[in-house]
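Below is a filled-in request sheet from our internal design queue. Each sheet records the structural input a requester submitted and the sequence that came back. We keep these sheets so that new team members can see what a complete request looks like end to end.

REQUESTER: design group, bay 2
PRIORITY: normal
MODE: inverse folding
CHAIN LENGTH: 85
BACKBONE (tokenized):
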């Protein structure tokens, strides 16, 4: 087993490479994270828009169905002969 290396025995070039790689890795992860956050926000915005459109279509279908029901009752009411006496 080798004894642990003292900090002052490590080459400055190796230290520089180590900390440079550490910094570049952190910068890469930060870039990736910001990209993923923007993608998630975009997906959430699209989902909200789709939900609004779906709700609007459901409302329109419900209103049309109610209007058709009302018109059927009106037609049935006026289509039957009634006695005026």
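RETURNED SEQUENCE:
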């Amino acid at each position: 087993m080798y004894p642990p290396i003292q900090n002052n025995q490590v080459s400055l070039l190796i230290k520089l490479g180590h900390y440079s790689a550490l910094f570049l890795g952190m910068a890469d992860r930060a870039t990736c994270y910001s990209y993923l956050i923007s993608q998630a926000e975009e997906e959430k915005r699209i989902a909200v828009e789709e939900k609004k459109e779906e709700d609007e279509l459901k409302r329109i279908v419900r209103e049309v169905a109610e209007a058709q029901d009302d018109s059927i009752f009106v037609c049935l009411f006026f289509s039957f002969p009634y006695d005026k006496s």
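SHEET NOTES:
- The chain has a mean pLDDT of 83.
- The radius of gyration is 36 Å.
FILED BY: M.R.
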